[in-house]
Amino acid sequence: MVFSSNPLSLSVPDPTFDTWLRDSGYLEILDHHSSSSAAPATTSSTTTTTTTVTGLFISFFSNVLTLLSLFTLNPFSKLTTDDFSGPTPSWTRSFFADYGSYSFPSGFDQARLRANENVKRYARNYVSLFIIFFACTLYQMPLALIGLISSLALWETFKFCSDKWGWDRYPVIRQVLVRTAQCVAAVILVCLNVQMALFCALGVSYTVMIMHATFRKLTPAKQPTRGR
């Protein structure tokens, strides 16, 4: 369905029309409207070279500020547990798509709109990417992998011994053993740099997520059927 920028411009102001699009779920139209309104106007033949160069510098610094502002966004503000329970969107058709599905955000408002919506739509894809990045990081850091496996083995051993000897009947002894196991596990994780592997995976996956979410254009979502 093709919409003009505001088909009700004679009776409905643009802010009200944008609010209706947002509330109705037509976020892809609002995204396209933001890109169209930010498109530069065609310069006349009387425009001087100095004005053109100045405009290029202004556009360049505006894009730099937009890029820097991406890391001030909170893409998890509208994320709910229901976003992780649905099916994973297709990696080829939905998540990556084609070259035409990406564009530079025209400003902070459009970047925030895209980030909030795309993080909700592709939450399961981003979680899968984090797991892949974390696995690759552990592969590059064998000591961290050994530390993670050792920590898991420690807790499995503790659980096995607790079930075998009935430590639940001695709450004081069990509490002391739990605290001891926690301290040993923390020492193993810190000494073998498991936390560094986790931070690296989180940093890379967050950067990829925020860049993809803000550059990925909003695509039409399935609209709920409304009864008459």
UniProtKB/TrEMBL annotation:
Subcellular location(s): the record lists: Endomembrane system; Membrane
- UniProt keyword Nucleotide-binding, yes or no: no
Q: How does it sit in the membrane?
A: Multi-pass membrane protein
The similarity comment for this entry is:
Belongs to the PRA1 family.
Please tell me the species this chain comes from: Salix suchowensis
The primary site where this protein sits is: membrane
Transmembrane keyword on record: yes
Q: Which domain of life is it from?
A: Eukaryota
InterPro entries attached here? Prenylated_rab_accept_PRA1
Question: What's this protein's function?
Answer: May be involved in both secretory and endocytic intracellular trafficking in the endosomal/prevacuolar compartments.
Among the Pfam families in the record, one is: PRA1
Q: What is this protein called?
A: PRA1 family protein
Enumerate the UniProt keywords alphabetically.
Membrane, Transmembrane, Transmembrane helix, Transport
Q: Which residues cross the membrane?
A: 53-73, 129-155, 184-208
